[in-house]
């Protein structure tokens, strides 16, 4: 294992932060896997899974079973990790800018396309290496003027040439689920089975240029621009893995999730061994555009009627909003049938607040598809 330390741009003297990456695998590795956790710094399940994974990878490396380089970043957001206000962690948004830590990674598709045009040929391996080299160079030319930009560039540079990118997150109260692209789904489906994903949500471009999509979009853009004339492979695929809810931080779950990731990497060929049989897929993959964000029209005490993991009928009651002063009780129903895979942890709702997400089957939304 190699431990690398990446200094971030310090916003003020004496306030420097760092990203720590752990690199496992042989010198002449066949491919590269990148795994990070807690980019939203108040989401801890992935960090515990990453710690378990770090110990397991060290054992597998010592046993000579690693075929690929595996890069692990257990703490992907030291900026957000320090943001605690009066005992409340605020790890989703940077307080200085108000920006979501998992949005607006740099889009280099046009720059890469302009650089490689005229150098592509009929060899897909040549084209893959050319695009990766151009992407690395484009990132190296970027300069950060803020600490947040520095953190984004560091993470993007560490992962830009990986075959697979796994970004470990969680929701508020949720069952295990994941986000990826339709193009990557054939490769990701075994992961969904091993991890027990009760919802798998697919979108090529969800609109926010999040960490996972900043890689897949580059390859999709190259295929769209040059695919008619040249063989452009899908050089990287990314998955946001949502490890249930924020409170699900315990060793039994983390150990199970760690083993699921190991099984998937064995199945993928990054680790030598015999992968266990694939479990049944709990719920079919569905479009992210079919997800219904269920909002309440009024504010008040939020009392749920259903749990994450329940399949809801069209129009089913999800919760009641109670006004404890005027005694008004407002029912909130889902409009569409689907799986309720996540809900809010808050129990005092504000008017217009999204209280739950339901994974339906038929796409009906367009444009920006992500949560704020």
Characteristics:
372 residues; alpha+beta; Aminopeptidase; OB fold (Dihydrolipoamide Acetyltransferase, E2P); 9-stranded mixed β-sheet; 5-stranded antiparallel β-sheet; 8 helices; 20 strands; 28% helix; metal-binding; hydrolase activity, acting on ester bonds; metal ion binding; hydrolase
Q: Care to describe what's here?
A:
InterPro entries: AstE_AspA_cat, N-alpha-Ac-DABA_deacetylase. Residues 32-264 form the Succinylglutamate desuccinylase/Aspartoacylase catalytic domain. Its cofactor is Zn(2+). It holds the Pfam family AstE_AspA_cat. By secondary structure, the protein is α+β, with helices and mostly antiparallel strands. Helix content is 28%, strand content 26%. It is built from 8 helices and 20 strands. It has a 9-stranded mixed sheet with strand order 1-2-4-3-7-11-9-10-12, with helices on both faces. A hairpin with a 2-residue loop joins strand 5 (84-85) and strand 6 (88-89). Helix 1 crosses helix 8 and helix 3 crosses helix 7. It starts with a strand and ends in a 13-residue tail after the last strand. The relative contact order is 0.14.
